[in-house]
UniProtKB/TrEMBL annotation:
Coiled coil: none annotated. Residues 67-122 form the Translation elongation factor P/YeiP central domain. Pathway: Protein biosynthesis; polypeptide chain elongation. This is Elongation factor P. HAMAP family: EF_P. It is found in: Cytoplasm. Gene3D superfamilies: 2.30.30.30, Nucleic acid-binding proteins. SUPFAM superfamilies: Nucleic acid-binding proteins, Translation proteins SH3-like domain. The keyword DNA-binding does not apply. SMART domains: EFP, Elong-fact-P_C. It comes from Flavobacterium micromati.
Amino acid sequence: MASTSDIKNGLCIKYNNDIYKIIEFLHVKPGKGPAFVRTKLRSLTNGKVLDNTFSAGHKIEEVRVENHKFQFLYPEGNDFHFMNTETFEQITLNKNILDSPDLLKEGENVMVSINTETDLPLSVDMPASVILEVTYAEPGIKGNTATNATKSATVETGATVNVPLFINEGDKIKIDTASGSYMERVKE
Protein backbone atom coordinates (compact mmCIF):
# COMPACT_ATOMS: atom_id res chain seq x y z
CA MET A 1 0.00 0.00 0.00
CA ALA A 2 1.25 3.45 -0.93
CA SER A 3 0.06 6.81 0.34
CA THR A 4 -0.65 10.12 -1.37
CA SER A 5 2.97 11.23 -0.87
CA ASP A 6 4.01 8.48 -3.34
CA ILE A 7 1.79 9.81 -6.15
CA LYS A 8 3.66 10.67 -9.35
CA ASN A 9 2.86 10.84 -13.07
CA GLY A 10 2.61 7.41 -14.65
CA LEU A 11 1.82 5.58 -11.39
CA CYS A 12 -0.79 2.82 -11.84
CA ILE A 13 -3.27 2.34 -9.00
CA LYS A 14 -6.36 0.26 -8.22
CA TYR A 15 -9.34 2.52 -7.55
CA ASN A 16 -13.10 1.77 -7.72
CA ASN A 17 -12.48 -1.82 -8.95
CA ASP A 18 -10.53 -0.58 -11.98
CA ILE A 19 -6.90 0.16 -12.81
CA TYR A 20 -6.05 3.82 -13.36
CA LYS A 21 -2.90 5.61 -14.46
CA ILE A 22 -2.14 9.02 -12.94
CA ILE A 23 -1.65 11.51 -15.77
CA GLU A 24 -1.60 14.71 -13.67
CA PHE A 25 -1.39 15.52 -9.98
CA LEU A 26 -1.07 18.55 -7.73
CA HIS A 27 -0.33 18.59 -4.00
CA VAL A 28 -2.46 21.35 -2.43
CA LYS A 29 -1.86 22.81 1.04
CA PRO A 30 -4.60 25.36 1.67
CA GLY A 31 -4.18 27.98 4.38
CA LYS A 32 -7.13 26.52 6.24
CA GLY A 33 -7.92 22.83 6.50
CA PRO A 34 -5.98 19.66 5.70
CA ALA A 35 -3.75 19.12 2.66
CA PHE A 36 -4.98 17.09 -0.31
CA VAL A 37 -3.84 15.81 -3.69
CA ARG A 38 -5.84 16.71 -6.80
CA THR A 39 -5.34 14.08 -9.54
CA LYS A 40 -6.39 13.31 -13.08
CA LEU A 41 -6.70 9.54 -13.60
CA ARG A 42 -7.15 7.64 -16.87
CA SER A 43 -8.82 4.25 -16.80
CA LEU A 44 -6.60 1.64 -18.46
CA THR A 45 -9.59 -0.51 -19.38
CA ASN A 46 -11.82 2.01 -21.16
CA GLY A 47 -9.64 5.15 -21.53
CA LYS A 48 -11.99 7.50 -19.65
CA VAL A 49 -10.38 10.38 -17.73
CA LEU A 50 -11.53 11.03 -14.17
CA ASP A 51 -10.76 13.94 -11.83
CA ASN A 52 -10.31 12.83 -8.22
CA THR A 53 -9.13 14.34 -4.96
CA PHE A 54 -7.35 12.27 -2.31
CA SER A 55 -6.94 13.62 1.23
CA ALA A 56 -3.36 13.75 2.53
CA GLY A 57 -2.19 10.42 3.94
CA HIS A 58 -4.91 8.47 2.10
CA LYS A 59 -3.81 4.89 1.34
CA ILE A 60 -3.82 3.90 -2.33
CA GLU A 61 -3.32 0.44 -3.78
CA GLU A 62 -0.43 0.46 -6.23
CA VAL A 63 -0.30 -1.90 -9.22
CA ARG A 64 3.15 -3.30 -10.02
CA VAL A 65 4.04 -2.75 -13.65
CA GLU A 66 7.05 -3.47 -15.82
CA ASN A 67 7.94 -1.32 -18.81
CA HIS A 68 9.15 -3.04 -21.97
CA LYS A 69 10.30 -1.55 -25.26
CA PHE A 70 8.06 -2.54 -28.18
CA GLN A 71 8.19 -1.66 -31.86
CA PHE A 72 4.98 -0.77 -33.69
CA LEU A 73 4.56 -3.13 -36.65
CA TYR A 74 1.26 -2.32 -38.40
CA PRO A 75 -2.40 -1.38 -37.81
CA GLU A 76 -5.26 -3.73 -38.68
CA GLY A 77 -8.67 -2.13 -38.24
CA ASN A 78 -8.91 -1.14 -34.55
CA ASP A 79 -6.02 -3.45 -33.59
CA PHE A 80 -2.39 -2.37 -33.49
CA HIS A 81 0.38 -4.98 -33.63
CA PHE A 82 3.59 -4.54 -31.60
CA MET A 83 6.77 -6.61 -31.19
CA ASN A 84 8.96 -6.81 -28.09
CA THR A 85 12.43 -5.63 -29.18
CA GLU A 86 14.20 -8.09 -26.82
CA THR A 87 12.16 -11.32 -27.09
CA PHE A 88 10.53 -10.66 -30.52
CA GLU A 89 7.20 -11.72 -29.00
CA GLN A 90 4.24 -10.03 -30.72
CA ILE A 91 1.17 -8.55 -29.03
CA THR A 92 -2.02 -6.99 -30.37
CA LEU A 93 -3.53 -3.98 -28.61
CA ASN A 94 -6.80 -2.16 -29.17
CA LYS A 95 -6.72 1.40 -30.53
CA ASN A 96 -8.39 2.68 -27.30
CA ILE A 97 -5.33 1.87 -25.14
CA LEU A 98 -3.15 4.26 -27.17
CA ASP A 99 -2.95 7.98 -26.38
CA SER A 100 -2.53 9.19 -29.96
CA PRO A 101 -2.76 6.26 -32.38
CA ASP A 102 -3.05 8.53 -35.43
CA LEU A 103 0.54 9.77 -34.86
CA LEU A 104 2.06 6.27 -34.66
CA LYS A 105 4.28 5.41 -37.63
CA GLU A 106 5.32 1.86 -38.53
CA GLY A 107 8.69 1.03 -36.97
CA GLU A 108 8.25 3.53 -34.09
CA ASN A 109 9.47 2.40 -30.65
CA VAL A 110 7.13 2.78 -27.66
CA MET A 111 7.16 1.72 -24.00
CA VAL A 112 4.39 -0.71 -23.00
CA SER A 113 3.46 -1.03 -19.31
CA ILE A 114 2.59 -4.61 -18.41
CA ASN A 115 0.82 -5.66 -15.18
CA THR A 116 3.20 -8.09 -13.43
CA GLU A 117 0.34 -10.00 -11.73
CA THR A 118 -1.71 -10.76 -14.85
CA ASP A 119 0.91 -10.22 -17.63
CA LEU A 120 -1.63 -8.06 -19.47
CA PRO A 121 -0.58 -4.81 -21.22
CA LEU A 122 -1.97 -1.76 -19.42
CA SER A 123 -0.81 1.29 -21.37
CA VAL A 124 1.42 2.47 -24.19
CA ASP A 125 3.75 5.44 -23.65
CA MET A 126 4.52 7.22 -26.90
CA PRO A 127 7.78 9.13 -27.40
CA ALA A 128 7.51 12.82 -26.44
CA SER A 129 7.56 13.84 -30.11
CA VAL A 130 7.48 12.22 -33.54
CA ILE A 131 8.83 13.38 -36.89
CA LEU A 132 6.38 12.86 -39.75
CA GLU A 133 6.31 13.94 -43.40
CA VAL A 134 3.53 16.23 -44.65
CA THR A 135 1.64 14.48 -47.47
CA TYR A 136 -0.95 17.21 -48.13
CA ALA A 137 -1.04 20.91 -47.31
CA GLU A 138 -2.85 23.83 -48.91
CA PRO A 139 -0.44 26.42 -50.34
CA GLY A 140 0.19 29.43 -48.08
CA ILE A 141 -1.32 32.78 -49.09
CA LYS A 142 1.33 35.37 -49.90
CA GLY A 143 1.33 38.31 -47.49
CA ASN A 144 -0.46 36.39 -44.75
CA THR A 145 2.67 34.84 -43.25
CA ALA A 146 3.59 37.58 -40.76
CA THR A 147 0.82 36.63 -38.33
CA ASN A 148 0.36 33.43 -36.35
CA ALA A 149 -2.03 32.08 -38.97
CA THR A 150 -2.22 28.30 -39.35
CA LYS A 151 -3.61 25.82 -41.84
CA SER A 152 -4.38 22.12 -41.57
CA ALA A 153 -1.97 19.62 -43.05
CA THR A 154 -2.18 15.84 -43.41
CA VAL A 155 0.86 13.81 -42.37
CA GLU A 156 1.99 10.36 -43.57
CA THR A 157 0.02 8.50 -40.87
CA GLY A 158 -3.24 10.17 -41.95
CA ALA A 159 -3.48 12.53 -38.96
CA THR A 160 -4.43 16.18 -39.48
CA VAL A 161 -2.28 18.79 -37.71
CA ASN A 162 -2.51 22.59 -37.63
CA VAL A 163 0.75 24.01 -39.00
CA PRO A 164 2.11 27.48 -39.87
CA LEU A 165 1.46 28.73 -43.41
CA PHE A 166 5.08 28.19 -44.57
CA ILE A 167 4.84 24.37 -44.27
CA ASN A 168 4.51 22.63 -47.66
CA GLU A 169 4.02 19.08 -48.93
CA GLY A 170 7.16 16.98 -48.47
CA ASP A 171 8.36 18.91 -45.38
CA LYS A 172 9.13 16.91 -42.26
CA ILE A 173 7.64 18.30 -39.06
CA LYS A 174 8.04 17.48 -35.39
CA ILE A 175 4.74 16.86 -33.56
CA ASP A 176 4.15 16.80 -29.80
CA THR A 177 2.42 13.46 -29.09
CA ALA A 178 0.75 14.62 -25.85
CA SER A 179 -1.20 17.47 -27.48
CA GLY A 180 -0.98 16.49 -31.16
CA SER A 181 0.31 19.96 -32.01
CA TYR A 182 3.02 21.18 -34.38
CA MET A 183 6.40 21.92 -32.75
CA GLU A 184 8.88 22.74 -35.54
CA ARG A 185 9.99 22.01 -39.09
CA VAL A 186 12.82 19.48 -39.32
CA LYS A 187 15.57 19.94 -41.90
CA GLU A 188 17.48 16.86 -43.00
